[in-house]
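Lay summary. Proteins are chains of building blocks that fold into shapes, and those shapes determine what they do. In this project we predict the shape from the chain. Here is one chain we studied, written as its sequence of building blocks.
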Amino acid sequence: MFYPGFLEQAINELSKMGMGIVIDDFGIGYSSLINLQKLPITCLKINKSFVADITTNKHIAMIVRSISILGKSLKLNVIAKGVETKEQLKVLLENECHQGQGGYLHEAVSVKEMTKYLEEIS
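And here is the predicted shape, written in a compact code that computers can read:
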């Protein structure tokens, strides 16, 4: 049974142990600006639904820019999810989002492939 503040306390304990805390899909669902103050967040991940429309919707581009600037001002990493085209990447870069993930940047790899790669670089 959860009690009020349990999740916040658990996240704070994980942070003290050196774990980075990421708000995934920032801007939709249960992500909340108040969490930026209350929790030891290290990274914001912008939901791919914003990235999908960033080249055709100026309002979406401004939202991404605002999230990026907010994150950077709070010294957080900001990552855009779902980068699938060169045009999306260009608009993200123009709007202050300099980290991304998605098929355009690199295709998905299996755990086995990633393990091999990490072993090679370490």
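What the prediction tells us: DSSP finds six helices and four strands in the chain.
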